[in-house]
């Protein structure tokens, strides 16, 4: 017996020998490598980081075709490769458990599809959720989508495996689990699921994917629109102010007298937007004119910006400088930024005009621009917050620290982690190299997705429920006429309802009609057979009766033969013994019968015998009288009840009658006599039946010995 035969004959998993059998190892290895490679290289990206894996298809196929021993190798390799490539170690447990549970269920008569569905509903999905929650700490939404997608993913690969298994050549597809054939309802149900529900689910998943992508696009576009609007407004604000401050600077560079300066301030006041203070510094950084007084002054009594960054930067670049955010006491310690425009005369730096903007004002402006569903953060070149809807104004100028991350359910929009919360993120830079970021809650994308998933699961449940009802109903419709026929087949008449119920399909009608007509033929045949058997039985009984009678009777005299006599006489004898009834056993023998035979021939001898028999019958007519031919020319009588003397009288009457008979033989008168022996029981009821006959025989012998034509009597 080779290894293949061992595997085929032994139940799966019963022998440790087969576990390591080379064919199992090779099959497991091949299927496992195929599964692992499929998962590693052909995973289908679904939502964000959720990927669909189809490698388990090979493992399940291996399980059904080769059994658990091969499947263990296959799942070990496949899930290990998948877990490493996807960096999801818990997949090893999920896939390995799937194989073990499905194996156990297949062993109990479940079919593949059913087994996988039960595994994922009862164990797979809840375990996956728990393991992913423990290992990744992802949000509930992500866990839900991940679990649901994996379960639907399982439905897809098991469907593929089941369908593929059906299309395999019979030799290969012979199921390792030799279960009895499934019920028709189960087959219709799985057919419905395979052909309708799963394609529907697949299409629904594709639509959900598309819908999610569209939602993402819409949100991304809205966020981009907000980002651009904010940046446009800021650019506009800065450009307009820069342009007006330039006008002031030009005015001052042309006329450096006090009037020009005053005029410049006036111009600035009337045209500048959101500028809280306009200041003019000379080339040494000394504040020479301001629209709002400074609180800080140096020891000489004036404010000097000589060591300030804005001054040095503007002086050295001789170009517009927008400062970073800082706090300023002159503005109730609120954060500000400044726009600094150099006053250039030819190539000479002559001072600068500065406009100060309170960031709270900027914040208010942007607040009105941004959609309510989004948040925004504007940062300066040092990544300090200029304006933000996410923090309190007192926290402005703090650093905007976030890290780029990946959201499990977001496909294309970039996501960041800010203060441990993830956000969708769109950004751009404005004039002055400020960064405008618009943030939004990923739920804007994931909530519709989750809702779709809930709908999908509900839809799947309803569909499965509907199909199970339809399958049951349909199967019942198909099988009921057949079951009814099977049930009624032994009956003589087929119920008309069965014919009515069979009108489900053409095939069933034909089958029912064939069965009904064959039933009629069979019933007729049975009836005929029964009648024949009855007749034969009756005849047999009659023959038996006759045979019995023949066995009990003597053919010549029609009296009981010896065994017949014994049978009846014994019953009567027992009755007499029990009831102490007097009885007589009488033996009668024709005297010198040999002579009669010899003298007149055998037929005449027979005539003598029948004559004696008739005389005995004539005198012993009571129901209780039993007469038999005891052998040859010897007769036996048993007479019971009444008086013994009456028995003896009767014997005398018989012997007298025989003696008086004149038989004619060829006109010659022939006479005959008989001898008799009687044993009568009156008191001693201890003798047995045979002894009684023996005593009567002794009396007969006595009669013969003492001259014949006599009767000897013994009374006990
Ligand atoms: N015709 C005829 N003869 C029979 C039948 N059965 C027995 N026999 C004959 O009956 C004869 C009986 O002879 P035995 O036993 O010597 O008795 P027996 O001649 O009557 O002499 P005893 O009885 O001593 O008076 C035999 O010759 C038998 O062949 C029968 O059915 N028909």
Automatic annotation (TrEMBL):
Coiled-coil residue windows: 526-553
InterPro entries: Diguanylate_Cyclase, GGDEF_dom, Nucleotide_cyclase, Rev_trsase/Diguanyl_cyclase
Domain GGDEF residue range list: 581-716
GO MF, one annotated term: diguanylate cyclase activity
Reaction(s) the record says it catalyses: 2 GTP = 3',3'-c-di-GMP + 2 diphosphate
Taxonomy, superkingdom: Bacteria
Enzyme Commission number(s) of this protein: 2.7.7.65
Protein keywords: Coiled coil, Membrane, Transmembrane, Transmembrane helix
PROSITE patterns: GGDEF (PS50887)
Co-factor(s): Mg(2+)
Residues annotated as transmembrane: 12-34, 90-106, 118-138, 150-168, 188-208, 453-471
Protein name: diguanylate cyclase
Organism per entry: Agaribacter marinus
